[in-house]
Amino acid sequence: MDERDWLADRFEAHRSHLRSVAYRMLGSAGEADDAVQEAWIRLSRSGAADVENLGGWLTTVVSRVCLDMLRSRTARREEPLDPPVHEATPAHPDGIDPEQEALLADSVGPALLVVLETLAPAERLAFVLHDMFAVPFDEIATIVGRSPAAARQLASQRAVVDAFLAASRSGDFDALLALLDPDVVLRADEAAVRTGGLAAEVRGAAAVAETFAGRARAAQPALIDGVVGLTWAPGGQPKAVFDLTIADGRIVAIDLILDPDHVGDLDVVLLGD
Question: Range of 254's domain?
Answer without folding.
Answer: 156-270
